[in-house]
Amino acid sequence: MTASAIGLLPEQTNTPVVVFGGTFDPVHFGHLQAAKALRGALNAERVVWLPAGEPPHRPPPAASAPHRLAMLQLALADEPQSVIDTRELDRSGPSYTVLSLGELKAEYLDQPLCFALGLDAALGLPQWYRWQEVLALVGIAVMHRPGWSLPEPLPPWWLGAQLDSHDPLPESGGWIRVVEIPPVDVAAADIRTDLANNRSIETKVPAVVAAYIKEHELYGENTRV
Ligand code: ATP
Known about the structure:
Elements: E1 17-22, H1 29-42, E2 46-51, H2 65-75, E3 82-84, H3 87-90, H4 97-107, E4 113-118, H5 119-123, H6 131-137, E5 139-143, H7 156-159, E6 176-179, H8 188-196, H9 207-215
Parallel strand pairs: 1-2, 1-4, 2-3, 4-5, 5-6
The structure holds adenosine-5'-triphosphate (ATP).
Adenosine-5'-triphosphate is lined by residues 22-25, 30-31, 34, 117-118, 120-121, 143, 145, 184, 186-189.
């Protein structure tokens, strides 16, 4: 009998939830393996995938929202711990992360929310709309990404929120933790370039995603990379 079953400890309900935002244009093994490693490292219950409709901080995606969503659904079909949240695709106007995280926080009241950001994206956080509120709402799990290194010294906004790897995850937001994950050197921009140049992408995306791209003739010669 476990300690919680005999009443010595409360049942642990506050397992973290990872929120993984992105354009997923297309989803690739870098996203999929990072999410899996992050879920394991944080002992998280699930990963909420949050595809952006109109990302405010970068050029519009090359593939339409329905195509990007369909590829995500195919890639995650065998992942029971993953759910896709379409609120940013359903909302008109720019996909402001602060709005989505505010809503998610109200829905996952008892669980710490960890917003996953690759190191490239994390370093750009101060350019985001109401970025201080983003950081105050959730914890940020930063994933290493090949080609990017942590700046020395860390910017003051980051340093003030930084948690060590052995610190417990606070229930509230306002923290940043760098999580060691196996590096996967794949980027969606490179995949779009490969496709525009008729190069194989089979090592970079699941076979179902490659087949979907081929069937719908996505990312052809005139694709914006
Ligand atoms: P693009 O090349 O079009 O900029 P991307 O490959 O960076 O796309 P996004 O959908 O923009 O993909 O990324 C969503 C999130 O996943 C971001 O936080 C990004 O930093 C992270 N990410 C993407 N690829 C990797 C990777 N290979 N390793 C770790 N994190 C990644």
